[in-house]
Amino acid sequence: TGNTVLHILVLQPNKTFACHMYSLILSYDRNKEGPGSLELIPNNEGLSPFKLAGVEGNTVMFQYLMQKRKQNLWSFGPLSTVLYDITEIDSWAEDQSFLELIVSTKKREARQILDLTPVKELVSLKWNMYGRPYFCFLALFYILYMVCFTMCCVYRPLKPRTGNRTSSRDNTLYVQKMLQESYVAYEDELRLVGELITVIGAVVILVLEIPDILRVGAAKYFGQTILGGPFHIIVITYACMILVTMVMRLTSTTGEVVPMSFALVLGWCNVMYFARGFQMLGPFTIMIQKMIFGDLMRFCWLMAVVILGFASAFYIIFQTENPENLGQFYNYPMSLFTTFELFLTIIDGPANYDVDLPFMYSVVYFAFAIIATLLMLNLLIAMMGDTHWRVAHEQDELWRAQVVATTVMLERKLPRCLWPRSGICGREFGLGDRWYLRIEDRIDPNKHKMMRYTEAFKVQDRDNCDKGSEKLETNGDTLCKKEMSALSLSRSTSRTSSHRGWEILRRNT
Questions:
Q1: What is the pTM of this model?
Q2: CA distances from 297 to 117, 228, 266, 301 (A)
Q3: Domains in the chain, please, with CATH?
Q4: Percent of all residues in the chain with a pLDDT value above 70, rounded to a whole number
């Protein structure tokens, strides 16, 4: 019951009342330091009160709990050293990491905790010492891997075509070699080494990604843009396309260009994932993901309807014409592709003025240009501009969240020998087995002096107002005008002293 009340207090909107009641309940806890402590008992979702405060974005309760858990090591004048307990914060030995919970929640208030002490210092320590070097090395290794795969595709085994052409539009010169013909020369053996590296890399990607999907869940793993959800879909699809290409090569199945083309596009697009390692480019990856899966997904439904309608109309108009003179609409699939190009203004209106054009072509093309080019494309630009404005105002928070997500990802996947635990063990200071982060703080004496002056002036103004109100209530109605003038005089004289103090504060600041 006590643990349930603690979780309820974390969710209370009145933060000050919740903190006082939290302390009151813990004062009756018999096992304050043992494993049976109320603060260590999780709820049905596996969240302790401390983690629940982070997930809900309750910064007041989080700071209150951190102040309870900190240890003042020493202080000398304005300098002080504090030990912050990071047992539940550090993701090194946690199955359900506090940092991962913060970046995976949908509440924006939770990301503000990443800018508070000691979370900010812990993330900065992990990222600067281990995260950034490992992430840059991983980006360089992936680019080299993609270059190897691209060269294997460029020099794939082909041979001249031997059969006769069946159509005047047939333009094929080379065909795919059979498996027995693909690895004969010395150049083929070099390509074989690159292909083996590509396949091994695809298997490693699947081995690293599938356990995380099973641990977190597919909806949460692919749905969070900060965690790189769309990029996980891209890299898994890329690995599957590599394996499909390998099977088609081993079975001498024609058509390997289809999965190979998909793999090249997806593999190189995944390079954008490594932009999150740089503060200048990191928020732009979030922006691209929100535009693709937000604005473009909604816009594509409208675009598909318009393209289907006008492509059908163009095909019907040119159905009776000679396809050699107007080849852009010679069949229905080509009509769809040509209309898509017209929609994006990639090409101009295809028209051969050496022959007579149908009258309805001009009417339909006029309507298509007004609806598609002038109306719908400008609507898409406006939607993307709004998304850019919203993400630009959150770019600092998004950058910190990306750094945290990347750090947690690297810490889970790398061996323990390459990523030691951050912080100091409490046994060195006689504080048990908990781990602490030492932070040095410098207290500005001028800041505290000005805060004391501010409080003094506020109290003086409040006392003057209280005295004036008491005089106003005790006097009768017959002396109202006289007392009001006296009150205004007393307020003006009292205001001069406090006003002078406020002016001093303004000039100092």
A1: 0.70
A2: 39, 18, 18, 7
A3: 5-116+423-445 (no CATH), 125-276 (no CATH), 292-405 (1.10.287.70)
A4: 71
